[in-house]
Amino acid sequence: MTRSVADSPRDDPRRAPSIVAPPSLVELAAATLRRMIVGGDLLCGDRIVENRLTRELGISRPPLREALRMLEREGLVHQVPRKGAIVTPLTLHDIYEIFTLRGEYERFAVQLGVPVRDASRLRRCREALGRMAEAAEADDEPSFAEYSFEFHVSIVGLSGHRRLEEAYRSLQLQMMLSMAMNRRARERETLTEDLQRHRRLLEVIEGGDTDMVLRELSRHGDRTFLDGIESRVQGHTDVALEWLRQERANSQQLG
After folding, report:
1. Phi/psi at 78 (nearest 5 deg)?
2. Is the pLDDT of residue 66 over 70?
3. Alpha-carbon gap, residue 100 to 243, rounded angstroms
4. Are both 68 and 100 inside the same structural domain?
5. Which of 6, 163, 204, 225 could join 182 in a cystine, given CB atoms 3.0 to 4.6 angstroms apart?
């Protein structure tokens, strides 16, 4: 008897669901290292000591080294001859480029998306803030950093501009390196206090005044680590030093 298309195993509702393979040891090691970097446990320029990590993660060198190669492809880790793997260092010019581009993306998104006319976009912001609150309650700093980035992505998403959001996401890992440096510079600020700054920004967005949102973004508090930054990083181009001088002048006016 010929089987019909409807009788094929593919369409059989009794067919067992596909089994999804668990993450490999390499993927788990890469995820752990990624969280250590974005959470500020490993900062830009820090050497990654393999002996210590194999002991702390409970894995052998081969999966750890493969995980490091994965992070190197992502741009989070850099191999230095005779030194080994280090967290990718950022120069002052790198920081200048990251922050100015991020700022332009966010300003453009706010100009396009505020006041918010699509309730689902605003709901996305609230959900991201809710996940930040859960991470703050659990004192989970790496997750808080990830959700903080997603909150800012949701703000860019208010624009309804898909390519703008994709461009913003392309900076994710570089921005999270900067955010990790910033969190370390604001060690006295608790996650709950950090959450309050983001909650305040969302309240202003909900108010619907574009200019007020732009002003709130300009004082959002993500530039604390620029204090004394020129003594901690290299790459002091003229344009980066002028930008840093202007940032400090603006901070004094806002403060």
Report:
1. -135, 135
2. yes
3. 9
4. no
5. 225
